[in-house]
Amino acid sequence: MIYTKDLSKSYNGTTVLNIEELRIPKGQSFGLVGNNGAGKTTYFSLLLDLIKPSTGNITSNEVIVNQSEDWKPFTSAFIDESFLIGYLTPEEYFYFIGDLRGQNKADVDALTAQFEDFFNGEIIGKKKFLRDLSKGNQKKAGIVAALIGNPEVIILDEPFANLDPTTQIRLKQILKDLAEKQGVTVLVSSHDLMHVTDVCERIVVLEKGNVVKDLETNPTTLKELEAHFASNLVTQEEA
Amino acid sequence: MIKHFLNLEWKQYFRSSYWQKSIALNILLVFFALYFVVMFLALGFGLLFILKETFPEQDAFVIANGFLFYWIIADLMMRFFLQKLPVMSVKPLLTLPIKRSTVVNFVLGKSALNFFNFLPLFAIIPFSIMLIRDGYDTSMILTWMFTMLIIVLIINFLNFIVEAFSAETELSFLPLIAVVGTLFGLDYFNILPIKSLVGDGMLYIANNPIFILIPFVILVAFYAYNFKILKEKLFLDSSLKSKVTEVKAADLSWTNRFGDIAPFMQLDLKLIWRNKRTKSMAMLLVIGVLYGLFFYPQPVYREMEFMFAFIGIFSTGFFLINFGQFIPAWDSGYYKMLMSQNIKYEQYLRSKFILMVLSVVILFVLGIPYVYFGWKILIAHLAAAIYNIGVNSHVILWGGSFNRKKIDLDKKAAFNYQGTGAVQWLIGIPLMLVPMGLFGLINWLLGFEAAVATLVIFGILGIVLHKKLMRFITQRYLDSKYKMIDAFSQDS
């Protein structure tokens, strides 16, 4: 589904991302972990053609993302709050995204109705602008907006940050269902190792722009990841 | 402390992507500044002779003071539109061990160093020198000069008070009109002869230096009031506390007739109506419509046919210029999202284009009553409207692809009263001067009909080539996509 080849991104000679080859099959729930500056957001931005790769490219469903825009209809994302339009209400925002993705109001209503639990009664029908919502509620609206229009690839950067515990648990269930039942390729990044191991079938660890681990999730994965990041700590302290 | 602040200011200015990417614009601004300096110098040295020529029987110094009132009014209006209260990002400073009063004093002190405060000096000082050379009493003129300096600063701080009030109201220019209108009205209807009061007052102070204390007290009072306003704003909760207003959604389904661009048009209309900054811009349309009234009632201007084209372009293109020059920066807050969405760039731009065309048509229709001042005016306005639709709209869309400055729509107006300065008006100049020059030239060479025809032909040419031009413009936007995303994700 998503094939990354010889991809690198450098700013003024400093390489921030360098991936030789990475293949993400359709329907996989894929987790990206790494410390700050590891290149997680850079990779997602390249995947969305928001920045230009220095070398190589990403092919999504046979489409080279920085050459054609044909990946847009089946890809959706929520990277940060800048994906929201502050002066719209959540409903208007959903309808707007729906319009862009060829969904009418009824389609959008049907979809958002499924997320009543997730919204916890704080999003729909409140007559508030998105800019007036709390960070957590903004995030909820952004994540659900990314699900509009039956995308085949969903990219979520740090979806668990700023969410309350209840919502985190609900979000994990939503993400699992997407990959397992609907065959959607879900790409998630997180600093929370536990959440990622709960949600993702596969976890890739980035370190200073390089892939250093590529794990199939199994009961020992969390331990392995914790050991990996703890060892970083030791080497850094020694240095 | 001041040293640190200055250091921060310096870095903020030179490290912003705006500065680095628009050196040409900065150079242009410097040229304008120099131009005004020269003009004021000329005025300062020449004023005495002009006054002696025009009013040979009267005392030039008295006459000059008589005009002071108009100068104060004009200066206030100029500043309101061009001068901003210095912006300082205070949030990071609030938790540091810095006194709030230090921050406020710094911001206000910095405003006193504005170009607009130095500009009058270029006229006041030479004029004073000329007066002394002409035999006026040196100590009297020096007192007068210092009083003038104080008055300049009074206007400076008065302007910020007016701006503070205008930030509170929906109709942002209402407080200005209220203040200026009241002053002018009091004088005009002889309720309070402010004009002669100001003039006589100045003369009195010049003769009795001790009374310089009066303007000085006024200055201190204005400063203190500014200090009070700003200090109240310096609490985080005033910017954090979001004033949650209940959304009143208007029915925008009429835009559906525009087909595939309807979602963008609805978005643009909401953008304009729901953000303070865009809203006050929309309110300025009134000025656009009424602009002709500044000129046409005076027979002098009715003789100058090239002015018709200028006023026509300005008044029918008012929205086009103000809205258009910030395309696509209006959407800078969520530009990343738009770029990753399933949209056609061409639709996005066409929505803006249609909006601008509609505004031109509406403004032209509202301006039809100008026919009262002569049918030629109406015809020139029509030609200007066609030119706006065919040429200026495309030019401004094209220019937008060079836009690299983020607009923060969500920003609560804590220190940022207007968000726009002199630069905004500069960009409009080529859009207005080119057709005006063209019209004026051909009008002079071949006559009115030919001049009108020229504008119309250019306009129609633009309309005919619309599809081609849009393809070219769209390509420009696509080419600078990464640069725009990068610039829009930077703050200031």
How would you explain this protein's 3D organization?
The complex is a heterodimer of chains A (239) and B (492). With 239 residues, chain A is of the alpha/beta class. Chain A contains eight helices and ten strands. A six-stranded mixed β-sheet of chain A has the order 6-7-8-3-9-10, with helices on both faces. Chain A has a four-stranded antiparallel β-sheet with strand order 2-1-4-5. The longest helix of chain A has 18 residues, at 165-182. By secondary structure, chain B is mainly alpha-helical. In chain B, 74% of the residues lie in helices and 0% in strands. Chain B contains 26 helices and no strands. Chain B has helices at 2-15, 17-21, 23-54, 60-66, 68-82, 91-94, 100-112, 115-133, 138-168, 174-188, 194-207, 213-233, 236-240, 262-274, 276-283, 285-290, 299-303, 305-316, 318-324, 335-340, 345-366, 375-400, 422-445, 448-464, 466-479, 481-488. The longest helix of chain B is centred in the first third of the chain and has 32 residues, at 23-54.
Name the features:
heterodimer; A: 239 residues; alpha/beta; six-stranded mixed β-sheet; four-stranded antiparallel β-sheet; globular; B: 492 residues; mainly alpha; 26 helices
